[in-house]
Structure formats: structure tokens, C-alpha cells
Amino acid sequence: MQRARTEIFYLFLIFKLTIAVSFRSFRYSIVQAPPQKWLVLAILWELAIVAALVALPTSRAAFGIQLPTARDPGIIAGFSVADLLCREPAKSAPARGQRRSGVAEPGTGPESRP
């Protein structure tokens, strides 16, 4: 049970960070709108804080988790990358569907012309 709690703890933590990176823009992909340096710095700071907390036996006992094994970072990174790869194409899907359905984008209709 403690092993599963450990993996879920790290998965939730890293998923939240990938969501922060991915949703810098709701319209553009992570390649078109890369994360700002302050966001990257905040994520690195968060990882450093978590690493420091997990290093303390009392905080591990409070959360009911263990130190990650050698395979845990690979599993967590794999799930996070898979989540990111699923999320990026989904962000552009509604925009393409709206253009095909005949709904005009804001500022392109006849009322916006001088």
C-alpha cells in the first residue's frame, strides 16, 4: 500500500507541473508558445522543495510515502510525457471545429469593419 501511495504522490505532483507547462496557452501548443522563464524557474523551485521534503524521514512518514526506487522516475516521466502528448493535440481540436462549422472568429465579422 505504501508503494502505491508513493507512486501516486509523485504522479500527481509531476502531472500538475506538466499541466502548468502545457496550459500556458489554451490555443497554441507548447512549441508555438514556450513556457516563460519564470514558469520554468517556479517548476524547478517546486521540484527542489519536494526533493528536500522527501529527503526528510519525518515528512515521508507524514505523507506515508517511501523514497522513490530507480524505476519510479522513468515510470513517472513516461506517464507525464504521454499525458502531455495527448493534451497538446486536444487543445487545437476545438479551434479547428469552430472554423469548419462556420462560426466566425472574433473581429472578423461585418460588424468589426469600419
Describe this structure in words.
This protein has 114 residues and is mainly α. It has one domain. The chain is 67% helix and 0% strand. It contains 4 helices and no strands. α1 runs parallel beside α4. The N and C termini lie far apart (66 Å).
Task: Please describe the structure with a list of short key phrases separated by commas or semicolons.
67% helix; 114 residues; 0% strand; elongated; mainly alpha
Shape: elongated
Round the Cα radius of gyration to an integer and report it. Answer: 20 Å
Unreliable sequence segments = none
Number of helices: 4
Taken in chain order, the helices and strands follow as: HHHH
Distance between the termini: 66 Å
Mean pLDDT: 78
The helix/strand class is: mainly alpha
Largest sheet: none
Count the E strands: 0
Number of domains: 1
SSE layout:
Elements: H1 2-22, H2 37-55, H3 57-63, H4 72-100
In short:
The chain contains four helices and no strands. The chain has helices spanning 2-22, 37-55, 57-63, 72-100.
